[in-house]
Amino acid sequence: MSENKKKFDKKGAKNMDEISKTLFAPIYPIIAENIINRFGITAGTCIDIGSGPGALSIALAKQSDFSIRALDFSKHMNEIALKNIADANLNDRIQIVQGDVHNIPIEDNYADLIVSRGSVFFWEDVATAFREIYRILKSGGKTYIGGGFGNKELRDSISAEMIRKNPDWKEFNRKNISQENVERFQNVLDEIGVSSYEIILEDEGFWIIISKTDQEAI
């Protein structure tokens, strides 16, 4: 079994849930706050792609009035997310969607906001994934897709602990949050015809911000 598949099997889902509730727990409210502050959007429809145990969806729901659809292809992740959402008393705000970013089971021009933390680095076909994301984004909609820890302090403290636990994580994270990846994703977005986007590489992380300006397909 590949490392990517292990990440999303039953044991991998349980491990991700545990880390999201312990070491990574402080990052989700900060990322949610960063999203809201950057765009000034607090209501409408939001899709969280690669939502895993639902930590970012839950953080966003607590800080906004979004109606959220949390999409993940792993049934094990979705089972855990359902429990976490119920425990947070957010069943009326967050709906689980079983699906793949390469073929998103959501209608065209649906979302005001599309977010994703961490999953983009595991997508098998980035061009197809972003075509799908653009398809379901409303005109005037925004994306906040990438990875990071929300701010410098959390990045430094969590990175130190992750490296202590697994020295190989340092190189994995360096490759993901890098200028090299900025250029890789720029090339993909240009190639598929996304006309308005920004890629930020700052203390808050590596994030791809698409601003959809029309409802035409790419």
From TrEMBL:
It comes from Methanococcus maripaludis. One of its GO terms (biological process) is methylation. Residues 47-145 form the Methyltransferase type domain. PANTHER family: HYPOTHETICAL LOC100005854, ZGC:194242. GO terms for molecular function: sterol 24-C-methyltransferase activity. This is SAM-dependent methyltransferase. It comes from the Archaea. InterPro entries: Erg6_SMT_methyltransf, Methyltransf_11, SAM-dependent_MTases_sf. Pfam families: Methyltransf_11. Keywords: Methyltransferase, Transferase. The keyword Transferase applies. The keyword Nucleus does not apply.
